[in-house]
Amino acid sequence: MVRPRPLPVDPLAEAKRQWVAHGWTDAADGMTVVTSVMRAQQLLLARVDAALKPFALSFARYEVLRLLAFSRTGRLPLSSVVARLQVHATTVTSTAERLVRDGLVVREPHPHDGRAAMLALTAEGRDLVERATAALNADVFADPGLSHDDAAELVAIVARMRRDAGDFIDPRPLPEPL
């Protein structure tokens, strides 16, 4: 991957300067936070996409496979996948349909609810997600581009933001296993 040459000035610092110069001082810090996080997301997603490309997986498809692989039986109700990934049901349904089409997941009837569906990982899906996880761990997660202390601080800050936005209630020190 060819990296672009760094800019001589941080464009987000310049944007903040412009915000202040235009009289939007009260919103300047917030604009800088939002655009900084969005740019960081772009940078991280580019690394994730590059690591997953050899496996023909998007991050959304990877997340569903990884979630199923983490479960005790390799299967979860579709509603549990929606809740745990915190995305809209139609997004998970669309992603699951592609995974089914590719033979990585099968859709099964729910054992207790005739209206609900279960997603179950196939052997091919399990093999693929394990190989993709090894690549993500080596190429992205082992070195996200921050020191250990900065990474911990960033995660804590974002967790407070997510909690305050209603993403979750303060969890136990470690979540319960799937």
UniProtKB/TrEMBL annotation:
Residues 30-163 form the HTH marR-type domain. It comes from the Bacteria. Keywords: DNA-binding, Transcription, Transcription regulation. SUPFAM superfamilies: Winged helix' DNA-binding domain. InterPro entries: HTH_MarR-typ, MarR/SlyA-like, Tscrpt_reg_MarR-type_CS, WH-like_DNA-bd_sf, WH_DNA-bd_sf. Transmembrane segments: none annotated. PANTHER family: TRANSCRIPTIONAL REGULATOR, MARR FAMILY, TRANSCRIPTIONAL REPRESSOR MPRA. This is MarR family transcriptional regulator. It comes from Microbacterium sufflavum.
